[in-house]
Amino acid sequence: MDADDAIDPPPTFRKRATLTSDPRERFSDEWPEAWDAAGDLLDWFESYDAVLDDETPPFEWFGGGTLNASHECLDRHLDERKNRLAIRWEGQLGETRTYTYLDLHREVNEFAAALRERGVGAGDVVTLYLPVVPELVVGMLACARLGAPHNVVSAGFSADALATRMERADSCFLVTCDGYYRRGDAVNQKRRADNARLAIDHDLEATVIVERLGDAQLGANQYEYSQLLAANAGCEVEPVARDSTETLFLIYTSGTTGEPKSVTHTTGGYLAHVAWTARNVLDITSTDTYWCTADIGWITGHSYIVYGPLSLGTTTMLYEGTADHLRKDRLFSIIERNAVDVLYTAPTAIRSFMKWGEEYPARHDLSSLRLLGTVGKPIDPRAWKWYYTHVGGESCPVVDTWWQTETGAILVSTLPGVDAMKPGSAGPPLPGIDVAVVGPDGSEQPAGERGMLAIRTPWPGMPRELAAATDWGASAAADGEWRYIAGDEAVADDDGYIRVLGRRDDAITVANQRIGIAEIESAVVSVEGVAEAAVVGVDHSTRETAVYAYVNPATQQAADDALHEAVIAAVEEAIGPMASPERVIFTPELPKTRSGKIMRRLLESVANDEDYGDLSALRNPEVVGELRSNDDGIS
Ligand code: WTA
């Protein structure tokens, strides 16, 4: 099968798909009013005046409407399915817990009451620094209930990274845990949180500690989660009515300057877009058990572990561990034991499964699966086909969904019961979404020609920064035309299917986190003995992107094991272990352009063992030979 082969949706799937006819024409004829279909999936307190007001920025989706995300995900389901499972959780060590909608509703209310008692009100930013445990979902929905934007920082981030994200968000409330297990080892999360607190300029009003390991020593203004719940047992908190355009949460992503940048998602537009895509792209229904393997701290987890599935009344599966912890068929065993209907994972995971071998999925009954999804990176046709065959048994459609932190929800994908699939290609833009591949002058590229992905009309899940459209630098409002350049290079085919080639800005995805290269480089050059450094992402064929750091030491003598270790330690301290360089390569010189800029593209080619093409822009071409010969030497 090559990339051009189109595969029709499996007939068994098609028969029961949520969407069986293509709504694209209606969405384009009646744009933007057709997005009403997304607004209709929510239970508004006050209905909206118009679907979209795009007269002048900031654009408003569902303006005039009021709602509450916690009500959408919990209260409105109680009549029909209070005793259905909202969450099935499996921990790193194999322990399990379940929450019905009623259980989750109760705990969210009690925790919201506790937060309110500690001073959290509408508009206060609450930072949640937790692994994938049910309490993280409780925390998010409790914040939403109070109208307090949440700011989730993945548990793997370092104390410094947490401090930066809390300080930027002016957040005085923190919910964390005493510790957790990662690959069987206990991580002392409380110590990290305490270190972060010391590094933050402002005082924290309250820190809540979820007891995972059971050994928390409480300091001033620190409270145990279970005690707070006990003190608020049975309390109910009225969900606060939020305007559609008010903030539901902040989330940090990489910035091109190396500083993390926050994106602000709205309540109405975001939820409507997420619910519509969860229903029509991932085909989730209220009777499904659905599993997205991402970290909740990533946008994928916000949209498609928490808000999408819960707003549809689904059972969402949470798994705290790593795909291969203890056994290489862990993921398949979870699917079988929980009879998972829909699986959403990342190409990097699929490539690992492929490397381990088809015997692992073959050991399990995976016939409960109905649909497979992928997100986060381009998926090559070989991995796509492996997923389709060995996990989906050729009876589940695969949706290759393209989107970003900044888009909030899926923008490009096939509709699983409607569109033919082309392995390696994400598919056409979704109904009502204008995504195109554009050339340097902003005009649409002919089919087959590379260009940058641009979004040319507003979409419901757009964040506040883009809705305001003035504060997004060159990305928005270029030459008077509203447009957002997403940073990905892509090519469209004759049928309008988009193949995403990868990011063209300076960000890499490691361990499901998009991280700015400049952020890693600034940690490396902070080490004494480092004169200059360049960091690149290297795609191994089977595993995650690996970080390689090319380091020019201040003196040749400085290039020793101690410096090597110091570089790794600096990155782990500034960002976290997931960004830790797999290799540190000392070089007497870095390749530079005549204007003195480090040519990272060239290092990337060397590291990935690719052809490095034209070197005419280089001031010091001789360095290339040296790097090549070094490449399997000092590291
Ligand atoms: C990449 C993740 C190819 C892309 C939801 C994008 C993809 C970045 C795909 C956003 C896909 C995401 N095919 N590339 N299906 N999905 N990407 O913000 O480079 O963590 O710009 O959001 O991931 O990463 P982020």
TrEMBL record:
It comes from the Archaea. Residues 75-459 form the AMP-dependent synthetase/ligase domain. The keyword Nucleotide-binding applies. Keywords: ATP-binding, Ligase, Nucleotide-binding. Gene3D superfamilies: 3.30.300.30, N-terminal domain of ligase-like. Its EC number is 6.2.1.1. InterPro entries: ACAS_N, AMP-bd_C, AMP-bd_C_sf, AMP-binding_CS, AMP-dep_synth/lig_dom, ANL_N_sf. Residues 32-73 form the Acetyl-coenzyme A synthetase N-terminal domain. This is acetate--CoA ligase. It comes from Halococcus salifodinae DSM 8989. The lineage of its organism: Archaea, Methanobacteriati, Methanobacteriota, Stenosarchaea group, Halobacteria.
